[in-house]
Amino acid sequence: MDSSPEIDITDSQATAFFLSPHEPLHRQYEALRAFFVEELPSAEAAQRFGYSPGSFRVLCHQFRHDPEKRSLFFRPLPRGARPAPARDPVRELVVAMRKRNLSVYDIQRELSETDRSISINALTLLLREEGFARLPRRRDEERPTAIKAETAEVADVRRLDLSPRSFRTAAAGLFLFVPLLEGIDLQRVVEAGRLPGSKMIPAEQAVRSLLALKLLGTERKSHVMDLVFDPAIALFAGLNVVPKRSYLAAYSSRMDHRANLRLMDAWFEQVEGAGLPHGTSLDLDFHTVPANTATEPLEKHYVSSRSRRQQGILVFLARDAEQRVFRYASAGIPKAGQADEILRFIEFWKRHTGKLPAELIFDSQLTTHKNLSKLNQQDIGFITLRRRSRKMLAEIHSRPASAWQRITLDSLTRIYRTPRVLDEMVALDGYDGLLRQLTVIDLGHEEPTVLITNHLKLSPATLVTRYAQRMLIENNISESIQFFHMDALSSMVGLKVDFDLQLTLMAGSLYRLMARRIGREYERAQPKTIFRNLLDLSGKVEVQAEHVVVTLDKRAHNPFLVASGLADKPAPMPWFGNKKLLIRFA
Length: 586
Description:
By secondary structure, the protein is an alpha+beta fold. Among the domains are: 11-74, Arc Repressor Mutant, subunit A (Orthogonal Bundle); 100-136, no CATH class. The protein has 22 helices and 15 strands. The strands form 2 sheets. Strands 2, 3, 4, 5, 6, 7, 8, 9, 10 and 11 form a 10-stranded mixed sheet that branches. The chain has a 5-stranded mixed sheet with strand order 1-12-13-15-14, with no helix packed on it. Strand 12 and strand 13 (547-552) form a beta hairpin. The protein is flat, with a radius of gyration of 34 Å. Mean pLDDT is 85; it is low at 1-5 and 489-495.
């Protein structure tokens, strides 16, 4: 007996049910009935039931010409269990297969061989309806015979094949870095960093493998599985085969922050001797490597690419403004130590160059006024932004026109080349003494740009232009994300991000050395452009008794490589049986 209460409605409510329908299908029915039965004009019927004239004409056209549209209003309701066209025809067959301990993927494969296609979701639902639980994980020998991925050999330096042979490779351009690495003692870098290794994969071979993937722009460590059968990459690393992704993930987990700092110290010394001198002006910035996790105790930081705060690993980066390359990178910086990271960088720079940096350019949120005072006391020039408050903006807009001076910027490519500047001395809380403040308007921004600096003699045009060049560090970060995939390896463990940062720094230095060798055409090119135009090369590799000969296939940009001199003389390969590399062009 139905115990649900019955509620009577009035005649006016019943009328409203037909004249003001709420459900879309009911509204279509009443509108079409008013037009065809009551012969209401099309525009009036559309207005009464909330349609535009055009959409109502389309509705009438569909009703006239589409039989399914007409039968939609009076479709009979299903009774009992609804049929399953995909599952029912194969139900008994699938049950019999599951009794043979076949997984849903095995069942799908056998059904497809008999021209019966069914999705994994449908199979899962069918087995659940029949009361089957999920199969426990099976060993390889317990699985049915099927086509499987080929198993690659285990990486072991003791199995390195030095015998004469030849093969084709899609990564022939990787060998152009061998002459550049001749000036860098990678073995000494590894020893100075005290990096972990084993008898099967020594530390130098492990770093060479990871560095090769970074130079090739491989997005994630999991994608190394696409390259494990390329003998050229293994030859570059000094191994019989490329290590698998499980080893690479485990290796990065063995690196702590101190080892990464030692690695960066040793690399800085070596790359300077290889022909990449340091400049005097540096751009500093923070970057957040986002981590999608709900379990790791990570702090929330601002992610500029997503315009929000989320859990992630904060990274400090220092870019050489003259050489256009990252010189310093440190990951896992807590919020409490964020403002003092600039002081740790200054200690690093002085330890390696013997001098304090001449000039630092950074954003307003990088450090505090107290630390700006420390920079000034050490005679370190700086240019940064000042945070704007409503009171400050009101005061700026109240200044008379006579207080501003018009300047001309040197850049010929800028649209706004003649901004107005208010040049004055100000006092800030926590800063000892006065600072020079430049307020810039007519620069293409809605709000004024407020710069503060301890440069007292430089012209306003020079200061504004120099800070504008700081935006290139954001371009460099973007390049590292796009080609070196700095964000792609954002693990839930900060140590992996830290080590990946050092590999990015090393690969960026090698690409900058490559650009310097190629010449002015590519001196300012991004790594992605250099790789795409010059280094994404296939070729033939011949291992001979005393040499390794790499013959690069023809490419339109090969003349740049010929002119670079990278192939002029043999390059030693001590990690590969002391053979020498000869690079030739087809």
